[in-house]
Amino acid sequence: MRTLSIAPSRQSRSARWAVALLLGALVTAGCTDSNDPPNNSANGPVPVCEGFPSGGDATTLEPIGHTGGEIVDSHPADVETFNPLLGGFEVWEWSTALIFDRLVELNPDDGLPFANLAEEVPTTKNGGVSPDETEYTFKLRSGITWHDGEPFSAADVVFTYDILREADLGSPFTAEVVDRIQSVEAVDDLTVKFKLTKPVASFLTTNMYRIVPEHILADVPPAEIVESAFTTGDPSATIGTGPFAFEERRSADVFSLAANPDYFCGAPALDRYIFRASQDFTGGYLLLQNGEVDVHSLDSSAPITESNDQINIYNYESIFSTNLLFNIQRAPLDDQRVRQALMYAMDREALATATGGTSRVVDGALHPASFAFSEDVTPAYRPDLDRAKELLEEAGWQQDGDSWTRDGETLEVDLWTNSGNLPREDAAAALQQQWGALGVKVNVNTEDITTFQQRYEEGGDYDVSLLGFIHFFDPDDLNQYYSSTGARNYVGYSNPEVDRLLAEGLATTDIAERTEIYGQIESIVMEDLPIAFLWYNGNTKGVSTRVHNVLPNAVAMELNRWNAWSWWVDG
Amino acid sequence: MTRYITWRLLQSVPLVFGITVIVFLLVNAIPGSPIRNDSASRGGAVDVERTRELLGLDDPLFTRYFTWIGNVLTGDLGNSYVTHRPVLEEITTRLPSTLSLAAASLLLALVLSVVLGVIAAVRANSIVDHSVGVVSVIGISMPSFWLGLILIMIFSVELNVLPVGGDGPVTGEGGPFASLPYLILPTIAAALSQVAAWTRFVRGQMLEALSCDYVRTARAKGLPEWVVVGKHALRNSMLPMVTLVGLSLPNFFSGALLVEVIFARAGIGRLAYDSAVARDYPVVMGTVLFASVMVVIGNLLADVVSSVVDPRVRVS
Fold this sequence. Notes:
The complex is a heterodimer of chains A (571) and B (316). Chain A is of the alpha+beta class.
């Protein structure tokens, strides 16, 4: 066993002085021409890692000007777990992304896989994928070690995928692993072979899980892993292969990761990566402005929208969408024409603007960065009040002054969303106005997120739910929402034709063929309208100008930390 | 005295027990489930059902309660559904943050309110007294979260002399007093409304004491005014204050919640709030149990201290 050695910090000073010094440094930096790099000239080597993407919009790195130092990244909630197999919300993903590696990762430039722990991405061309696309063989990079010095091998990969099959582990990935993967075996120390139950086109993008150490977890019964030191965070147990190693939990909501000097892309430029909770967007912005954190996600309430001497602002598409769930099980929205009328009465560009973000309105359901994305989805619901009125009349509603009636009933919808989410509350208010212009009365209701989730997940009492989804880049993402057995098909949508096409789309890896199939699916579901995709949310990240090589983008999402090994800070 | 304390502690057992029953019923009556269909999950309903089963959430309510209370009696508060860490550990790691804030704001509130209250009483109906009165009313009506934000705007954003939030420096080594600057603004925010209330109380007590016979006697003996006020009147008028402070102890824990959120402090108030939102039942129950024990102890301490300092308060 070997412990990580970190250059000791010589800073011994009160926090007050730390703040004063930091601000002094920022003020000094602000006096220089902002086009010049501040204190350091970036004259070190350009960081390169074999197999990693380099040279695209999102992957061109600047030379490292200084090594050492720490950065503080703020997250909006408390730490959940450090176990990459268990799943959770942002914080879990942010930190496990730095500690653990997958066999392949997604290239931020094109959304396609690149080799990470694997030496190269298996394809049918290089013989890594069998002609019937049910066998994948990965060659692993040699010489990789775990943070505790133990060698990494194919046995760890086999162990990870085997433990994921255990129901007692309580992992959200188990159902899909069992469904898609038949067996995983180690051919030799550095070769691992996956046998799938059927061809799965999205296998390399959605079923790559972070590899965990067999030597730490082999003796822990699956049911006990969830409460083990590995999961809750312990430098001797939370062991990965990534650029940073779990160092310590400094308080309930602050924890630090230390650079892994033996990382296979070379030692990170930073000494330490610290996470702290900042509670809310506004408080986090003040921390960023005062130099108490270096990285923070901003919302529309932040008083800056452009980079300045202290803070660089990055706007990028996220993988979160904003959607409307239509309750297709009860009147009045059980009638497709009423749903379509609501779509025609909506001006999504205006709505997106009202929410203050830099969101991207889409006509279909696929993410703009997906290879199957199309600008020409039909029907595309452009604002058209006359068409909306026609549709309502076809559905048997009669205009009666400012409202619509049918059999003595007035047309009104109950719109639900969660409280405390400003963009959603703004969107709800704008929707009320836009649908009101058509003569549809909208009752806006808000409740706390957990209660709200139960309402729509259990197909409860609502007409329209305004909510967000998180997406995968493979177009098989649509399966979640539109398959009659989809995990997020909360509205109970079922269309045999869509089910058939979804199965077809997953059974081939031919990009042109798949693009065609998912295009057909989009046309059908936009006509049927169980769910309306309004837009993909824009994300804004504020990063202190002392931090370099931060490249946030849609594919890497919060995993814009994909290149954290090459981040550096001014000395 | 020992018998009295034992008796009081025994009395509080059914009280705490009752609180846990009520809270258990309440948190389970709120709609929503601790098992969220995670954004990361692709299995959907299958995974949700399996996880519910693993956590025993489908067992009848009373079975779950008795399992929980049985474990508590053996010292096991369970594990958080969110972080999977032991609840006891979650509470103890947050204890220093909450205790330091509670102690500092209690101290500040006491000192300020006694000083202001005495001045107001001695100079009763003067301009000073009226000013203290006006300030008190403002203090009572000013919500602590609002005051907290104003303090941050002035001292952190504009003047840059104090940190915006947190429990202490997250970088560097700092030294033993490094976290003191982080305590200043939250302490002021948490203490001020209490100062306002207590100042009114101290003023009233002092006015009453100053009109007592023994004060007239002391003055008649020719004692200097500061001895009359400071030694005779003040000490007597402080007795009811002991009880009042004891009863206010829970305020310093519950009131700390908003302050903890505003100043991003990792304290127990915030833990209780976050776990209630996440329906993290074991943590909700753990924090409630902790808070009720603190209240019981606070009240007991107040009773014991007042019987020690004031022989007129008999315990039997």
